[in-house]
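Work Package 3 (structural annotation) set out to generate three-dimensional models for the target panel prioritized at the project kickoff. During this period the team completed the workflow that converts sequence records into discrete structure tokens, so that structures can be stored uniformly alongside our sequence database. As a representative example, we reproduce one entry of 171 residues exactly as it appears in the project archive.
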Amino acid sequence: MAEALVLNATYEPLCVVSQRRALVLVLTDKAVMVESAGQVLRSAATSIDVPIVVRLARFVRVPYRSQVPLTRKGVLARDHHRCVYCNAPATSLDHVIPRSRGGQHVWENVVAACGRCNHVKADRAVADLGWRLRTAPRAPSGAAWRILGSRRMDPRWSAYLSADVTEAASA
């Protein structure tokens, strides 16, 4: 089974769970199916649509982290799996200001890079090489980034998630 998006009672995205867990939430009346996956599960007595999006029956207050955790998959998703220096397919991460020169391991200093650019740049600053970044690195924001992280998004979820993460997750 695939995954299902769980929305709060206010249609705010909360998390992604397995379709089996989403089905249990619907069967126990803890959630209502918003969208079906187009599949039907049958038993001897009943049949039920498999949910792809469910909404909780009661509002749940969930404390979120203020920042999205920095991960390799997250950086690659943010940069659309392309090198920020030459636009080739990215295979590694690079620190804009090298850690050997005091650079931090934070969203604003980590970018996706191809192996060639990462090797040529080594521990030098971008300005030393005369290179430019295609886009300035920044920390992703929004509830959808905290929920999806770097996993692939089902296209049917896009109506319930913000636009900035929708294009990054589908890349």
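The longest helix spans residues 19-27.
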